[in-house]
Design goal:
about 15% strand; about 260 residues; globular; alpha/beta; Rossmann fold
Length: about 260
């Protein structure tokens, strides 16, 4: 069955932070669907390695490097992409990281509290990266009066855990940033949405036994009793990147096996 609204063949997609993990999972599905990819990472070698995998599988992909937490770097990336890749149709901001520390040490615990530098790092790598990406590529989208932006948040935006205050605050910020920007850009027919993944371990970043342990842990706390597969986030991103979601903006989609409602 061919559904034309889901066809993204030939569309140009820039993914910032897609050399591994969830970002790479999104890139793999979009490449399979026929999109042309620009993969940007802090490390150009990592981006090039990911891009070469897509090319080897018959896709089209090129690599760029940029520090998504720095506005100047993202402005330079926008110029580089425009010059050698061309006008983009979709922007995916998927940089992220976490530090598991409480705001301040708690009585009876041996843990250290979060430093101001660690707090700022987590906000920058999870929230500021969405701002810098949208700020750098916004003029392009607004000028062409079309496009789709996908920001990657997380279920921490909805369901916080102790020791993750900075991460939860940043991911919640992505949700509200997405909503506000969706309203700003709606008159120009540019859509802005976000995806909030739950537990999506990357098999390439761990041993088979470590992955099995993560799966076993999820069976006791996730309603669907397993961790997510990276491809599943990519399938949701395909919907948001395509015309199938042409009437959707300002939304955050949880993909977590039901963890956020348990």
């Amino acid at each position: 069955m061919n559904i034309p609204e889901y066809d993204i063949a030939g569309r140009k997609v820039l993914l910032v932070g897609a050399a591994r993990g969830i970002g790479k999972g999104i890139a793999e599905v979009l490449a399979e669907a026929g999109a042309e990819l620009a993969i940007a990472s802090l490390n150009r070698q990592s981006a090039a390695a990911a891009a070469s995998e897509f090319v080897a599988s018959g896709g089209k992909a090129v690599a760029f490097s940029a520090d998504a937490t720095k506005a100047g770097d993202m402005e330079r990336l926008a110029r580089d992409v425009a010059g050698s890749f061309g006008p983009i149709d979709v922007l995916v901001n998927c940089v992220g990281d976490a530090i598991g520390k409480p705001v301040t040490p708690r009585p009876g615990q041996t843990e250290e509290g979060m430093t101001p530098a660690e707090w700022q790092f987590i906000l920058d790598v999870n929230l500021t990266q969405a701002f810098t990406g949208c700020r750098a590529f916004g003029p392009h989208f607004l000028a062409q009066r079309r496009g789709s932006v996908i920001n990657v948040s997380g279920i921490a935006a909805i369901r916080a855990n102790p020791g993750r205050a900075a991460y939860a605050a940043a991911k919640a910020g992505v949700v509200q940033f997405t909503q506000a920007l969706a309203l700003e850009w709606a008159p120009y027919r540019v859509r802005v949405n976000s995806i909030a993944p739950g537990s999506f371990p990357d098999p390439a970043q761990m041993t088979a036994e470590e992955f099995r342990q993560r799966e076993a842990q999820a069976s006791g706390r996730v309603p669907l009793a397993r961790v997510g597969r990276l491809r599943e986030v990519g399938l949701l991103a395909l919907y948001l990147a395509s015309d199938a979601s042409a009437y959707v903006t300002g939304q955050t989609y949880c993909i977590d096996g039901g963890a956020s409602i348990a």
